[in-house]
Write a structure and sequence with these properties.
This protein is mainly α. It has a single domain, classed as Ribosomal protein S20 (Methane Monooxygenase Hydroxylase, Chain G, domain 1, Up-down Bundle), CATH 1.20.58. It is about 85% helix and about 0% strand.
Length: about 130
């Protein structure tokens, strides 16, 4: 524990700044987690709306000196990359679904013409057997 007045003040200021820095880092992590949770849930519209807010939180941490600018750039790039890959996957799935529907329609049209309907023969009962003998 420091004895000098200025050293005591330094300790108090350092603790205060440390808690503020932790709060800002925590806010960045929380924003990124919320964004990733929306992507994982498949809510692309919500994630697209949340992206600018998340980027803003990251940029404010850079401005305050909590994160390095390159670290922030990597985080923002990863967020955008994840959103773009999720959009591409959703578009691909929609195209495959449409293609599968088209194939099913074509098969349904072709199926009745290709297969003739066979009539079932009536089963022989004991009565008919007795009459036949």
């Amino acid at each position: 524990m420091p004895n000098i007045k200025s050293a005591k003040k330094r300790v108090a200021v350092t603790e205060k700044k440390n808690t503020q820095n932790k709060m800002i880092k925590s806010a960045v992590k929380t924003a990124v987690k919320k964004y990733n949770a929306l992507l994982a849930a498949g809510d692309l519209a919500g994630a697209e709306k949340l992206l600018p807010e998340t980027v803003s939180v990251i940029d404010s941490a850079v401005f305050k000196g909590i994160l390095h600018k390159n670290n922030a750039a990597n985080k923002k790039s990863a967020l955008a990359k994840n959103l773009n890959s999720a959009k591409a996957a959703a578009e691909k799935a929609a195209e495959e679904k449409a293609a599968a529907k088209e194939e099913a329609k074509e098969e349904a049209k072709a199926a009745p013409a290709a297969e003739p309907v066979a009539e079932e023969k009536p089963k022989r009962t004991r009565k008919k057997k007795a009459d036949a003998e």
